[in-house]
Amino acid sequence: MKAIANEMIVTLYKEPDAASECIDEVLYGMVVDILEDVNETWVYVQTAYRYEGYCLKEQLLVDDKKANQWNEDAKHIIIQNFADVLKEPKIQSSKLATLARGSLITMIEDPESEEWSKIQLADGKIGYTRTYWIRNRIVENLSEEEFREKVVQTALSYLKTPYRWGGKTPLGIDCSGLCSMAYMLNGVYIYRDAQIVKGFPIKEISFEQIQKGDLLYFPGHIAMYMGDGLYVHSSLGGNEVSINSLDANHPQYRKDLATSITAVGSLFG
């Protein structure tokens, strides 16, 4: 059985208990597979990037047919930190929903306005949001150089976002959430954890081969390399998304990380 995330953020928990550890966040419009119907309140699900956890059934639209159709139709993604969906194409209108960056929607052609786009939500409601807050879910073909630059710039757009264990929105994001969202927003699903996993597109390379946009792995941590010895990451120790350096002479050097790299991963390995 498939289901659609029907709230801005659907939290995935380690156990079927809201007091247990948050391990991930499923964003509005993302489709999940229900692996187990635990009880009236909880289901055990798997995301499109093969992450598994428990979530509240009430936060999902559980319907195989609708979920499959939504997968076909939801071809646009929110790129604004937070985007209000309004009943009418004017700022004075009432709000239908607020969506976080990475949420999926269906675009409805509406040639009457360049400022506003008519969209459909997963529950069938029709609303409007700013045209420049959304873009096509499928990224156009980019050269390797263009992709590397775009994925770094996407990661940098989260600078100063608070650290949140299991988070992956501008409200709060963790290390693997940052890297996986930077790649997802550029059309690539990578494993949502601080390790290289077989079956996903990131492959291990030597440190000597590292380039902008590649990933640095540490024990329990992941960062994105920016070039020139710099990397961006969401650090539990730093409490937010920040930039540090591998260069011992740089003021942003972190010895604890620079001396504990376990692997380097690349989409272009």
TrEMBL record:
Annotated coiled-coil segments of the chain: none
Family: Belongs to the peptidase C40 family.
Superkingdom in the source lineage: Bacteria
Listed name of the protein: Peptidase
Taxonomic placement: Bacteria, Bacillati, Bacillota, Bacilli, Bacillales
Biological process according to GO: proteolysis
Keyword Nuclease (UniProt): no
Domain SH3b stretches: 72-138
Pfam families for this protein: NLPC_P60, SH3_16
PROSITE patterns registered for this protein in UniProt: NLPC_P60, SH3B
Record InterPro entries: NLP_P60_dom (IPR000064), Papain-like_cys_pep_sf (IPR038765), Peptidase_C40 (IPR051202), SH3-like_bac-type (IPR003646), SH3_16 (IPR041382)
Domain NlpC/P60, residue spans: 145-265
GO molecular function terms listed in the Swiss-Prot or TrEMBL record: cysteine-type peptidase activity
Species of origin: Ureibacillus thermophilus
Keywords of this entry: Hydrolase, Protease, Thiol protease
